[in-house]
Amino acid sequence: MQTGQVRSIVVMGVSGSGKSTIALALAKRSHLEFVDGDSLHSPENLAKMSRGVALSDDDRTPWLNAIGRQLRLAQSSSVGLVVACSALKRQYRDLLRTYDPEIFFVMLEGTEALIRSRIEARPHEFMPASLLATQFAILEPLESDERGMCVDIALSPQDIVVQIEAKLSDGAKRS
User: Fold this and answer.
1) What is the span of the domain harbouring residue 45?
2) CA–CA separation, 172 and 166 (whole Å)
3) What is the pLDDT of residue 134?
4) If you ran DSSP here, which 8-state letter would residue 78 be given?
5) Does 175 map to a domain?
6) 122 Cβ partners below 8 Å, 6+ apart?
């Protein structure tokens, strides 16, 4: 895959949108490293979510900084990285951009009904379906000045990855 200047890609969206599936598939096809942002949550955050309690901005900040350090390490090592991370708010994405200003965001979009059905059909160690509404409530779509694209999750994972690759090969401009 030709990624131009893109070295860091964050696949974002609410829980159940397919972030880990798409990010891992993209990383494998593109021969890039993969990090599942969920693996960087603190034990306290995991326990809180397991109890069905939504994380606050204060809870998320250390987690986002941990992801940012992974982005910076990859950039300083000239390694391409794909990260699965909710990045629900603009301020979260802005924080990640302080670690790598050239991040390309892929926002996975779908209806709450579709995503709820996916969550209810899969086991997840700490993200109950009850937290989905809180994620949709704080979700802020990519803005026109953010480097990235939006993709409909009704497509197959393969089709989503092909769309991402096509956009990246077109110069990673906002769609």
Assistant:
1) 8-169
2) 9
3) 87
4) T
5) no
6) 16
Domain-located, residue 123: yes
Tell me if residue 9 falls in helix, strand or coil.
strand
**Which pLDDT tens digit goes with each residue over 116-157?**
888 888 765 555 667 788 889 999 999 999 999 999 999 999
At residue 111, the pLDDT reads: 93
E strands within the chain? 8-12, 33-36, 81-84, 104-109, 148-152
Model's pTM, two decimal places?
0.89
Question: Crossing angle of helices 19-30/157-169, nearest 10°?
Answer: 50
Closest C-alpha to 6, from 38, 30, 41: 30
Residue 48 lies in a domain: yes
Residue labelled with tokens 């993209």: 26
Q: Which residue, chain included where needed, has tokens 């110069």?
A: 171
Question: Per the structure, how many domains does the chain have?
Answer: 1
| CB-count exposure of residue 36 (10 Å: 0-12, 13-18, 19+) | middle
Of 55, 83, 54, nearest in space to 67 by CA: 83
- Residue 108 pairs with which residues in a beta bridge? 151
CATH number at residue 85: 3.40.50.300
